[in-house]
Amino acid sequence: MPEKSPITLPPPAKEEKKLVEKEVLREDEEAKHRVRLELEIEGLLFSLVINLYIYRGLVNDIVLLRVMDQDQQLINASQMGDVDTLYALIQKDSYVLEHIDKLPFANSPLHFAASAGCTEFAMEIMKLMPSFAWKLNQDGFSPIHLALQNEPKQWCLGCYNLMASLSG
Fold first, then answer.
1. Is 124:86 a contact under the CB 8 Å cutoff?
2. Do you know which InterPro entries this protein is assigned to (predicted)?
3. Domain for residue 138, yes or no?
């Protein structure tokens, strides 16, 4: 019987190499897609947790804790009329004033500035967060009530100047 020669395979054709490369690229795209889906799912889960907190009424507690972190610095800045510190706090947390605004009854920076007679600071706060002018504290006082108890002339002048600058 004649000896059998070993079978030799031809080298892979260019088309086969392209198929392998396409398969590798497809696997990479699938991996990227999986990562995107995982991130999207994480975002949805985070949103679900926040909605549960809101549903259970815990959002005020979360907002209150967050406000307490910067509260003392903001109170000090408000009472001293330190606008630079106010803007430094806003740079750290651009929602620092919105967190306070979400609370139904609170002493806002405007309350503290009005009580301390810091009219320029109060005017700056009213430009940034006009809703603070009407916010009541736990005692039922608005910043205007507190200002009129302390510095009625200066407050009225400051309000007039603010209205004039806003009206153009």
1. yes
2. Ankyrin_rpt-contain_sf
3. yes
